[in-house]
Amino acid sequence: MHYRPSLRHFLPLSLLLLLLAAFTGPTAPPRKLRLYLIGDSTIAQKVRQTFPETGWGMPLSTFFDTTVVVDNRAQNGRSTRTFLAENRWQHVVDALQPGDYVLMQFGHNDESEAHPDRYTSPQDYRRNLLKFVQETRAKRAYPVLITPVTRRKFKDGRQQETHAPYSAATTELARAQQVPLIDLDRMSRALLQQFGEENSKLLFLQLAPGDHPNYPYGRNDNTHFSELGARKMAQLVVGEIRAQQLPGLSDHLAQPLPKNAVPPTPAGKDAQPTTP
């Protein structure tokens, strides 16, 4: 005789499975790592009315895969002092989670003695950076110090150093606190020298009258970047993230689509399509 289990034999197992489902629920997706950017207008998001001015934080997200969220909190005109005074830093601290990153680059407005509302001495600048570092670490997140990106300033064909006291303070603090340092000041000066005095204008907001409706009279700006300049500065930052093997970031850099990872063939103008 074959044994036929009845419904009552299945009932306890069914109830157990229902209870397990009720208590466990669907598996939550893994939390994405957030990469916070704090700093000034050389990094910040720009509004449509200032295009083609571009902060180097704007293209940064395209260098990472979808597990990393770039949260750009940089603001035009801010120094370390005003970023703190306006409570902008506290909002970042409150949002930080273990494993997040904070990339910090100031200096342009800290050094502006002509604007006492934002000027910060090198000593106070260092003290403010130290606060950012310590409070980031207190949340078990990772601080990264970045020296201020250079302004375009050539003399006798050589790009000049434009942030010496503030870059030195950033470098010294990174060494003293054993914080990863991205020396963007040095690297960006080398990049401008590579482009040369005339061609380096392509990296900045350099417009002739009539070039763009946002600037009908043109613009001769050696501080803020064009789209090309912002992408080149972002590339320098990403190159250092890769070289220093920053945990959680260097292993989540974006990978190309398979067809874009193949060297282009010389035949035909459409041999290397870029659409998915």
UniProtKB/TrEMBL annotation:
The keyword Signal does not apply. CDD domains: Rhamnogalacturan_acetylesterase_like (cd01821). SUPFAM superfamilies: SGNH hydrolase. Residues 251-276 are annotated as: Disordered. It holds the Pfam family Lipase_GDSL_2. The keyword Hydrolase applies. GO terms for molecular function: hydrolase activity, acting on ester bonds. Residues 37-231 form the SGNH hydrolase-type esterase domain. InterPro entries: RhgT-like (IPR037459), SGNH_hydro (IPR013830), SGNH_hydro_sf (IPR036514). Keywords: Hydrolase. Belongs to the 'GDSL' lipolytic enzyme family. This is GntR family transcriptional regulator. It comes from Hymenobacter edaphi. The lineage of its organism: Bacteria, Pseudomonadati, Bacteroidota, Cytophagia, Cytophagales.
